[in-house]
Amino acid sequence: MTPPTLPDDAWWRTAGDRIQTLLDASSSGGAVARERAEQLVREVTDLYGAALERMMGAVLALQPQLADRFASDDLVASLLLVHGLHPHDVELRVAHALDTVRPYLGSHGGDVALLGVADGPDGYTVRLQFQGSCKSCPSSSVTMELAVEDAVCAAAPEVASIEVVATEQHPDPPVIPAAALMSRVRQPTAWHPVPEFSELSDGEVGGFRVLGMTALACRVGDDLYAYRDRCPSCTGTLAGARLSRSVLRCPGCGAGFDVVHAGAGVGGDGHLEPIPVLVRDGVLSMAVPQEVA
Prior knowledge:
The chain has 8 helices and 15 strands. It is α+β, with helices and mostly antiparallel strands. The strands form 4 sheets. A 4-stranded mixed β-sheet has the order 1-2-3-4. Helix 6 (90-107) runs antiparallel to helix 7 (140-155). The two termini are 29 Å apart.
């Protein structure tokens, strides 16, 4: 039975976790029981995969334009990925994934360019170049990389590595090794569902307690932004702050910050510390530092 607290899409997207839990539980019956349970899952998956392949072949032969319709449905697309039946190739899926996070990257004063996707013996390698990141925000590059990695891995699980090519004016070596990038991105954060953020209306600011950390969330138009509850100018709380257009004013010292552009200070007041907020598995989620989680 579907719990009433979860949307249908989110419930089905978490089916893999529930299946894995059942498989783990089967281990209590010994190695043979575990092996039989895994074989049962493989048989059922292969059966439905074979039927899905025939259905996709028949449908797309009659109406090729439905390929985009299937690809745009996250739940359908995820099942097609499992069976290697997704109608779009890896490069197109990666490009679409980057489009979904561009509004978030723009809030950090940056963007990302897809330089190419190469197939190798261990899987696909995606080459990216970050552009125009907010120089005054030290956490901006890490949060941007986190958003991009999450989107790319969800859209193209065949991707084995991500290479970030530095811009020409950057003094560092031309390529950041994928392993180094992933260790920087993955270690400090964990994702936590925050569906309550979506209840904010345009121009509204709200303080939320998430795993012991206070986050300040606000909505500008259709976009949500989240920041740590700390004014960099007076170091006080931002509780009671008001939003005018895209500028958040500290109730204590009056300093202003542009929430749409990485929390950059208006007139040199420092910058807020941004917190990534993305839709993951159909649920609005926030990146929480590991020491807090």
